[in-house]
From TrEMBL:
<dbReference type="GO" id="GO:0005737">
    <property type="term" value="C:cytoplasm"/>
</dbReference>
<dbReference type="InterPro" id="IPR051468">
    <property type="entry name" value="Fungal_SecMetab_SDRs"/>
</dbReference>
<dbReference type="InterPro" id="IPR002347">
    <property type="entry name" value="SDR_fam"/>
</dbReference>
<protein>
    <submittedName>
        <fullName>SDR family oxidoreductase</fullName>
    </submittedName>
</protein>
<dbReference type="Pfam" id="PF00106">
    <property type="entry name" value="adh_short"/>
</dbReference>
<dbReference type="InterPro" id="IPR036291">
    <property type="entry name" value="NAD(P)-bd_dom_sf"/>
</dbReference>
<dbReference type="GO" id="GO:0016491">
    <property type="term" value="F:oxidoreductase activity"/>
</dbReference>
Amino acid sequence: MYNVLIIGGNQGIGLAMAERYRTQGHHVITTSRQFSKNQTSSQQLYCDLTHPDSIVAAFDHLQTEITHIDVLINCAGVLHTENYQPEKSLKQVQADNFQHNYQVNAIGHLLVLQQAEQLLSHSKQAVAVSISARIGSIEDNHLGGWYAYRMSKAALNMGVKTLSIEWQRKYPNIQCLLLHPGTTDTALSKPFQQRLPEGQLQTVDETAEMLQQQIEQNTHTTNQEALFLDYAGKPIPW
């Protein structure tokens, strides 16, 4: 049985993955900014990646509940909100929107890993996963646009890649993964689904199953620098 921590586990891909792991008998803990700030359940914790203090508080509580984390999956991410949509041109770039994207998609992920370091290091074989996106690949950028999302995901990739080099020396038991989930039927993709070719949209359950397969296949491997893979296990250029 694994101890599984899912950041952003109350909806979409995170919720589907939490349900899969629970069904398989693992001990699953989920976090969300939508949970109560006074939440002290052993299975649900309040955590908002835009508020570093809440990340610290969540892990302070976790350390009273568990001795290690075997699987950490950070599903938190933002592409658009009620206040802004992805930029189509440079003229639409707004500093506040950029800062929000970076805080959730990049900085918040690293702060989670910072707090999770001790618990991950105590696992016999741990995997630290961040849900990234192909759109964060610099080499694969052929369409332009979506400045904040592209740049924040590229920053996430660089941050996890850099961390994996540090941890490779310290913790041979931890593997870092960046996984592209594919276009999945969630609130994040909802405004753009009408433009998709038929058959390209995945259900959350389909995505969760494929991502779990990649996690399992890459957990018990020789420790190496971070891998950037799609849901089918195909490497994505950085």
